[in-house]
Predict the 3D structure of the following.
Amino acid sequence: MIGIFDSGVGGMTVARAIEQLLPDFQTIYFGDLARTPYGSKSDAAIVEYSIQNTEFLLDRGAQLIVIACNSASSVAADVLRQRFDVPIFEVISPAITKAVASSVKGRIGVIGTRATIRSGVYEKKIKQASPKVKVFSQACPLLVPLVEEGWLQTRETKMILRRYLHPMKLKQIDVLVLGCTHYPILKSLIQSRMGKKGVTLVDSSEVTAEALKRFLDENPAVAEKLVKGGENRYYVSDVTESAIATAGMIFGRRIDLVKADHN
């Protein structure tokens, strides 16, 4: 199975993208709702949670792990690769590749949680890929709680988005990386505030699913070992009405969230 974890339900944007691109493969998802958001936690805590989440998924049959969380990807991916002998995918590298390829002006914006922006991982890796590119980063700590609460079209959310995105507009970026898997849920609002023309949004959920598909196409021996068919499973460390509603909105159908004690 393909194991996917996130700090909450935002990572379901990755799960849905994988389901659409790789419908034959069974997935198992874990959302750590009891401890969300990760973006405000210390690096040590995020690493500890990521190890626990990975063990939870492996214990239930996952043979490949997708870190569907930018905060965890930015600080825990290397630790997980050293600790676990399975393929580990994260959402940052595919987004960077897409952003650099999409930018004409060489002015790329990145929005993410405090942990992701604090890590500097996007700026560092974008500069490695294309040294002349200018990178502008903006922490948006309120967006994950708003998404987790289901406040997707409220006046407050629109006002907060406008405040966060205004500096990016002033920098005249031509690509904006949605550096958190919760943010695609707000993609239409973000696009309207950045302008329909001139700014390309990079959706990390879509490009991560594409990267996973390429990997499996190029590594048929790995693909052969993954479970195909069967029902996808969705576990969370806490079940809330807003999480159920948001999961249903992402997938376009009701998703049964199963509460699991993963510690």
Q: What stands out?
A: The two ends are 21 Å apart (CA to CA). DSSP finds twelve helices and ten strands in the chain. Residues 117 and 139 are 6 Å apart (CA to CA).
